[in-house]
Each structure stands twice: as structure tokens, then as C-alpha cells.
Amino acid sequence: MKKTLTNIFYSCCVQLLGIIVPLITSPYISRILRPTNLGIYTYIDSVSQVFMTIGLIGLSNYGIREIAYSKDNKKERSKTFFEIMILRIILLAISYFCYCFFMKGTKYEMYSIYQIIWFAGSFLDVVWVFNGLEDFKTVVLRTVLVKTVNVFCIFIFIKSPADLLKYILLMGICQALGTLICYKNLKRVLEIPNFKELNIFRHLIPTLKIALPQIVTLVFYQMDKIMLEWILDDSAVLAFYDLADKIVKIPVTAITAISTVMLPKSSKYFIDNDHAGLTKSLQATVDFSIMLIIPMCLGLMSISCGFVPWFYGSEYLEVSYIIITLCPVIIARGLSSISSSQYLVPTKNTRYLTYSSVFAAIINVVINFITIPILGVYGAVLGTIFAEFSVTIIQFYYMLKDIKIKDMSRSFIRYTLFGCIACGCSLVVWYLLDTHIYTTVLQIGCAMIAYLGLLVVSKDKLLENIHFKK
Which residue, among 360, 357, 384, 389, has the nearest Cα to 371 in the 3D structure? Predict the structure, then answer.
């Protein structure tokens, strides 16, 4: 139990770093590189992520599983490691060649050449070995060191828009550095195998089964950015959309953490055939999540116009409007994290995850293709919203066939009303004090106090239960 709690703590640290570091570097980078150069990097990074995910064919998660299977057998573990690493090296060469071919003749060709360092760092990464061995301490220490170096190097070396190539190289070098740091720890967990016994291609079919949902999900999340560039050919717009998407993902991370923590509990209910316990657990999580995601969604809408100018700079005012229109995905992603992590995965209904992801990816591409030429960046927003809610609807459809969740509509109406009143207070503060960091902090504080006050005055049952349990 102690080890499990420690691993949860380490995992939370990694998630927290993923939120904090962009909040530190984004305001600086957005002002230094400016919208056009930032958009160029966003496009290069999005295309790279697609080729990496397709190229790795699910080997990261597959590798974690295989290392975990042979956790107590050093010889078998070493054999598995070398087989998978040789396969990753082959796939690195193929993927980077395809990436360069895709970029050839475009205005991004020169920049893409420098991505070789990032590709090498990503494909040769061995963090999956330590995840498989549940050595999360090594993973966290690696992440902390690399993120720290990354932050300092950005402030030291990136000084003007002309430093875009330096920025691309820096991100690649940091990725490679993280990979090299982990290699020194491999000696204590591996041994040199008999290379004649290696069977590299035995892993292909099993890993492809894992790869499909990952590839579809990545297309779902990255294709809108790629299509924005293809259709509009405006790097600045792409930068605006990417920055808005990153801000919207922050509250989603908090909600997703709830489902991640509850996953083992839901799995135990399923194994024990405790349908009542699983239903009760899901009911409580759905109620609690709705109580959080509604004010998060409305709250982010209310502060965006005052937050973006001082955080990113006056050139990025368009980001605030994109955030406002994109905020509904907080609700969709928050609910789908419950249906996926607390029902579909624990009950071994992962095929429905694939169904929903494939359908959402198709919806996203089709709507983007139709609406981006007409609505511009807001066409991509529309495609994302439809895709995200289609995932939620499909997953909840299959979950509600087995689990009965009560009073969802009533909870939505109740918390939406409270959220609107609280965020009305936030907007009043902004209108009175105008744009400033202190205004944003005061907006958040007033909205939270107003929302919590409404819950207390109305004697909200969920809040009372939480207080009682404490």
C-alpha cells in the first residue's frame, strides 16, 4: 500500500510539472517568438507527434506491459528490452524518412531537418522500462531535471524571433537529454542477452492492437491543427488555437486526475462482481465532477478576456475569444474521462473506447474540412466540440446501459445556475478594474467564494457529504 501511494505521488508530480512548466515558459515564448514563429513551431511539433505515434506503433505502452510481465525474470526482461529497442531503431529510420518526405517542398522543410534530434530522443527513450518496473522515482527525477534545464535554457538562449531554429534544437536536445539520463540506470535492471535468441518481429502484431486507439486519438487531437495550416496557411492563427487549447486542457487535467485515482477502485468492484459498489462509485464521481466542471468551464470563459492580454501579450487577444468558444470541451472531456477510466477500462470494454475515438476522429476531420474555409479557426473549434461530445455521448450510451446514473440533468441545471451567478460576479470585477494580473486573481477569488456560498446556502447534499466524510 505504501509503495502504491508513493507511486501515485510521483505520478501526480509529473502531471503537475506538465501544467506548471508551460505556465512559466508560455508568456515568455509567446512574446519572444511572436505569433507567426510560434505557429511554425506548433505545426512542426504537431506533424512530428503524428509521425512519432504512428511510427512507434504503440511500443511504449506495449513495452511497459511486457516489462511488467517479466518483472521478476531479469534474463527474459533483458531479451524483451533489446528486441523492442532494435525494433524502435528500425522504426526511427522509417518514420523520420517519411516525415522528411512529407515536409519536402513545403516552407517548413528547413525547420523539419532539425527535428532529427527530437525524433531520436523520442524513439530511443527507455522510460517505458522503468514504468514497467514501477520505478516511478527514476521517471520523476528525470522529468524534474529535464524540465528544469529546459526552462533555464529557454530564458538564456531564446532572445528574439530569429531564435526559432534555436528553440527547435533546444526542445530536441532536452528530449534527447532525458533519454540519455535514463540509460545510465539500465545496468542495474538489465543484462546482455544472447542476440541469436532475439526475435524482433514477434512484437509487431501484439503492439499493433494497442497502437490503433493511440493513433486514432492522436489524429483526433492533432489533425485540427494540421488542417488549420493546410487550409488557412496562416501560422499565427495556428499559434492562437494551440495556446487556447493548452489553457483549456489545464482544468481538464484536474478532472482527469479524479478518474485516474478511482480507476483501481472501480476495477476492484468489477473483479468482485460488486455491481452496487461500482454504481455508487460512478454516481458519486459523476456528481462531484459535474459540480466542478461547470464552474471551471464558465469561470474560464469569464476570465479569458482579462487573462490573455497580460499572460500572453496584447498580440494574442484572439486567443481569449478562442478559449471562450472552446471551453465547452471541458465538460465533454471531464465526463468522458469518467466513462473511460472508471467504467470501460475496468470492465474490459475497451473496444468502445476505440469506437468512440474513431467516430470522433472522422467527425473532427469532416467538420474541419467543411467549416474551416468558412469560419476560419472557429471552424476547428466547432469540429473539436462536436468530436469531444460525440466521444462522451457514445461512451455514456454504453455505460448507462449497465449503470444507472440518477439526476444528471438536475445536477447540470443546478450547478449551471450557480456557475452563471458566480461568473457574473467575476465579470463585474473585470468591468470595474479592467485587465491586470491582480484583476484575474480577484475574479477567480470572487467567483469561488460566490459559488461555494451558493452551495452552502442551498445546503448542497454533495458538499455536506464531503464535509461529513472529512
Answer: 384
